[in-house]
């Protein structure tokens, strides 16, 4: 017969003794507001940058390209985290508000 150490075994009673955990999956308001503002300002930067580059506002195309690049730098994380927040709100599998880093 094999020796079985019952001192460290887990029984059904031990599992039932655990307190129930409540998962709070509330939306992080500040983080979502930051993501939406990055998305909006990034979109505006891209649109105004293209407009400025096309019409040569500021004397040359460099000012418009700068605003377009700055807008894209703001747009990319804003779009990413806004998409995560939207999918978590809709309840898609694999998305939760815990995927958005705290500010």
Produce the secondary structure layout:
Blueprint: H1 12-16, H2 29-55, H3 62-90
Describe this structure in words.
The model has no long low-confidence stretch (mean pLDDT 86). The chain has helices at residues 12-16, 29-55, 62-90. Helix 2 runs antiparallel to helix 3 (62-90). It is rod-shaped and about 90 Å long. With 103 residues, the protein is mainly alpha-helical. 17% of the residues are buried. It has three helices and no strands.
Task: Give structural attributes.
mainly alpha; 103 residues; 3 helices
Quick recap:
This protein has 103 residues and is mainly α. Helix content is 59%, strand content 0%.
Main β-sheet, in a few words?
none
Number of helices: 3
The computed structural class is: mainly alpha
Number of strands: 0
**Helix and strand pattern:** HHH
* Overall morphology: rod-shaped
Radius of gyration: 25 Å
Low-confidence stretches: none
Calculate the mean pLDDT score and round it.
Answer: 86
Helix content: 55-70%
Alpha carbon gap, first and last residue: 59 Å
Q: Tell me the strand percentage band.
A: under 5%
